Amino acid sequence: MSSLDANHFLSENGPFSTQMPGFEYRPQQVEMVRAVENSLRDGHHLIVEAGTGTGKSLAYLIPAILWAVKYNKKVVISTYSKTLQQQILNHDIPLLQKQLGVSFRYSLCLGHENYLSLRRMQRAGQTGLFTKSEEDDQMGTIFDWAGTTSTGLRNDLPFQVLPSVWEEVGRQKDQCLGKHCETHDSCFYFKTRKKWFGAHLLIVNHHLFFANTASSGAVLPSFDAVVFDEAQNIEDAATSFLGLEISNSNLHFFLDRLYNPKTRRGALTRLDHDLVPAIRKQVLVVRQAMDVFFTRLMEDFGTNDRVIRLYKPLVVDNNLYVPLKELHDQLQTLSGRLNSPEDQLDASSAATRCFEFNNTLSAFLNQHFPDYVYWLEIGQKKRFRKIILRGVPINLAGPLKEQVFDKIDRMILTSATLTTQGKFDFIKERIGYEPKEEVVLDSPFDYQSQALLYVPRDMPEPTGKVELYLEKIAKRCEELIQATEGKTFILFTSYALLNQVYEKLEFLGRDYPLLKQGDLPTPQMIERFKEAPSVIFGTSSFWQGVDIPGEALSSVIITKLPFDVPKEPITEARLEDLKKRSIDPFRHYQIPRAIIQLKQGFGRLIRKQSDRGVVSILDSRVVNRGYGKKFLASLPKCPVVESIEDVRDFLARDAMSITEMKRQ
């Protein structure tokens, strides 16, 4: 294979131009192919911003496949959203299998907890663990399904499985007997995992990638190159895996699985040994200590829904430590005295959980890690108050550089939104990435004729009078929805504002279906949106990863510039960290983060060459404040208007041209 093979496929007169239906030659795509090819061939780090419509997934998949096959290498393709992962698996890879003329192997890699454990299922079926008929019914269905499924994946179940049921039948790393398990040869997880080792491409998500990093490479097979798509989310994804978390609900659930005195069920009811009665009593001691500990926290911090940052170690008696340590010791002793390997594993894995709970709680209370931010969250969960204790690293640049980037020779970071004002400085600084090559590719779309940007000056700023702001936002959204006759996304930065605007516009439901995030699962909302002219009210998950090409979407309304809430503990701590280093946090953190998010929101509108529509930014700071220019300069170049009449004129002209095209 020559070094030109990959871009040859996508060139103007290449094989895809004649073999692939709907093929469009895109010079930006060919340029990206060359850059990825060079990175893989020469072994260096690359960062690529590829504007919407570039076809970036094919631009990295083709060279990755050709390189991996030629040299028998393994390439990890990591995405943030399920939507992109499904596009790669269900569209791009089947297409390339058909068109490339090269035989290659690929595997979707999911976390072990997604797989059914046949041994644990059989064990759960032998002991009456459940008190609810719905749980028993689901168990029966899972037994039937286990005989027909080829994957054993939780997501492939024909119903939404209850967490309490999956906890008993799903694979758990610390309860796996490995080769000593009688179901090892038919184990869904190990059968799938074998394929991972023979694959050229491993399709993962960012969370699994960083779970692999946190476990020193114990999750995935060793690999030779990585492509991070949706790379703007790397910092957020990595943060969750390098942090601490413990809650009263997790501890409660763990103790119930061991022994629930009300139902007299749990793992300790199926272990037959003289030590078991004493251990059951110890479970009750831990339960009482847990209730006392978390009740004290609520006495100190209140019971209202709130997030409280902790600036110094908590002065609270850790009355949980000794009971948990005692339970750990008893379970360890029991494990050594049981005869069955299965029983030994149940006892020892429960002991490990006690040890982990104690370690996490001690690290949190004593704030062991000085470069972390610590906080607690109080909220309602069905019948009780849930308290979560969290601690996460403030700055990930050092750990990511050391644990990820310095260890991998060939790495490509890409997304449609990585630059602010044409530069990668922000993302590189935040995650400690120092690529040898940087490439910025504009979109092949003609935004000058396809899109209009509406930025009214007459809107009140969101920092002003709340009621006036709400009134004006709702009224302007109504006018824009009427102008496009539905076909609208309204993007919010908080659920509170979303619900308030939704209430004021609910009357529009007479004319168009109104779909509010949270009322339906996202995939169902999108399907309904495509069926008839509708309006979606969405927050963060609708700003990115949602792809609706065609006439169904003609208008994206951005209600507010997407600045992070400065009082959220992690944001506040990062702003303080920058101030300590004499860096202006607003210019160097808050604005760049908001610009990248705004670019994501803008990118929902134009998804193919024939798309047309309007993006409205109803936050007048974008035109009335000096920093607003930075936001506008980072968006694709298109006509900008300040009058809603200009919006109506654009849409009217658009409607006329569509009518003309249909006549022809």
What does this protein look like?
By secondary structure, the chain is α/β, with parallel strands linked by helices. The chain folds into 4 domains: 5-105 and 199-238 and 396-441, P-loop containing nucleotide triphosphate hydrolases (Rossmann fold, 3-Layer(aba) Sandwich); 112-185, no CATH class; 243-393, no CATH class; 447-663, P-loop containing nucleotide triphosphate hydrolases (Rossmann fold, 3-Layer(aba) Sandwich). The chain is built from 27 helices and 18 strands. Helix 14 (321-337) runs antiparallel to helix 15 (341-366). The radius of gyration is 27 Å and the shape is globular. The mean pLDDT is 91.
Summary of the model, kept short:
With 664 residues, the chain is of the alpha/beta class. Helix content is 48%, strand content 13%. The chain has four domains: 5-105 and 199-238 and 396-441, Rossmann fold (3-Layer(aba) Sandwich); 112-185, no CATH class; 243-393, no CATH class; 447-663, Rossmann fold (3-Layer(aba) Sandwich).
Whole-number mean pLDDT:
91
Number of strands: 18
> So what's the CATH class of the largest domain?
Alpha Beta
What would you call the shape?
A: globular
Keywords:
664 residues, alpha/beta, Rossmann fold, 4 domains, 7-stranded parallel β-sheet, 48% helix
Topology:
Blueprint: H1 5-10, H2 15-19, H3 27-42, E1 45-50, H4 56-71, E2 75-79, H5 82-99, E3 106-108, H6 118-126, H7 133-146, H8 163-169, H9 188-198, E4 201-205, H10 206-214, E5 225-228, H11 234-241, E6 244-247, H12 248-258, H13 276-301, E7 306-310, H14 321-337, H15 341-366, E8 372-381, E9 384-393, H16 397-403, E10 410-415, H17 425-431, E11 437-441, H18 447-450, E12 451-454, H19 466-484, E13 488-491, H20 495-505, E14 514-516, H21 522-531, E15 535-538, H22 540-543, E16 555-558, H23 569-580, H24 585-602, E17 613-617, H25 621-624, H26 628-634, E18 640-641, H27 644-663
Helix pairs in contact: 3-4, 4-5, 6-7, 10-11, 12-13, 13-14, 14-15, 16-17, 19-20, 19-27, 23-24
